[in-house]
Specification:
By secondary structure, the protein is an alpha/beta fold. 43% of the residues lie in helices and 16% in strands. Helix 1 crosses helix 10 and helix 2 runs antiparallel to helix 3. The longest helix is centred in the last third of the chain and has 25 residues.
């Protein structure tokens, strides 16, 4: 099952999107709130139900003892998001000042996420596929320093190890303008330190005049999934309170279920392409395609 990291150029609904995907997944799922700026699900959707005794910061203390201690402590800091315990939350930081303590923890945590997703090829004592989770990482707002992901303000190792990194954008000109500036350095980062530049895709919040084909064209990055602009459900996932009418059949959760399937399909395509790299393009055929594309553009 995939490990998917969600990020943004600026506030674009990363946490709400990640929570919607986690709640809508048809498989066991986990949301890890790893935004160095602090988590919001604890105080918002869960309305303070989870105390500061749970969460990400405590894993940093465990990791300072040993990576094994972090792995052992991990399960005790998860919170059930449903009665059956199929959907879980790793609550985020309660204070952004705690982020500096996690700099050396991110790499160990990334390994734990891969194990949760069933990607531990070395452990043959368990049926990993039966116990695995869809893992969604809320990695917050991207921060760069000298062209590289900031080591404190962004959980870089989690992005490097993720099967997919989804940049959450809205269909507004403002959102696309902001996203345009982070696409190139993020793609370069994933090419150098991650699983490849093709790990990068877009999650489009359908708010604004630009549709998926236009967004993909402007940002030169594929839109791998989309979520509707559903203010009532989004407000509930963000702030808690009274559950909206027909919540389980709301447009946001309905499309989030589809989005989880699209994400899994994108990861499967990547795995196939890595096993069977595309053949080099015949330059003559490439020229034909370019001419056809130019001709189509003139007609349009």
């Amino acid at each position: 099952m995939p490990v998917t990291a969600l990020v943004s150029a600026k506030s674009s609904g990363v946490t709400t999107s990640a929570l919607a995907l986690t709640l809508a997944s048809k498989r066991p799922s986990l949301l890890a709130e790893c935004d160095p700026a602090g988590g919001t699900v604890r105080a918002g959707f869960l309305e303070g139900e989870v105390t500061a005794g749970y969460g990400l910061y405590h894993l940093a203390a465990a990791e300072r003892t040993s990576p094994d201690a972090l792995a052992q402590a991990f399960a005790s800091h998860l919170w059930d998001l449903d009665e059956a315990g199929h959907r879980k939350l790793l609550p985020g930081l309660t204070d952004p000042a705690q982020a500096a303590a996690l700099t050396r923890t991110w790499a160990s945590l990334a390994e734990v996420m891969q194990v949760l997703a069933g990607d531990d090829e070395h452990d043959v004592s368990i049926d990993a596929s039966r116990l695995a989770f869809d893992v969604f990482i809320d990695a917050g707002r991207l921060a760069f320093e000298s062209g590289h992901l900031h080591t404190t303000l962004t959980p870089a190792p989690l992005l490097h190890q993720a099967d997919l990194v989804l940049l959450v954008v809205r269909g507004t000109e403002q959102s696309l303008t902001l996203a345009r500036h982070v696409i190139k350095p993020l793609r370069t980062e994933l090419a150098k330190h991650g699983s490849g530049s093709d790990a990068l895709g877009l999650l489009l919040i359908e708010d604004g005049p630009n549709r998926s084909h236009r967004v993909a064209q402007v940002l030169e990055t594929p839109v791998l999934a989309g979520l509707p602009h559903d203010p009532a459900t989004a407000a509930y996932l963000t702030c808690g309170g009274n559950q909206p009418r027909n919540y389980s059949r709301s447009p946001l959760l309905k499309h989030a279920r589809t989005a989880t399937e699209q994400i899994e399909a994108a990861v499967s395509r990547r795995l196939i392409q890595q096993q069977y790299p595309p053949r080099p393009t015949n330059p003559q055929l490439a020229g034909v395609l370019q001419r056809l594309s130019a001709k189509r553009g003139r007609r349009g």
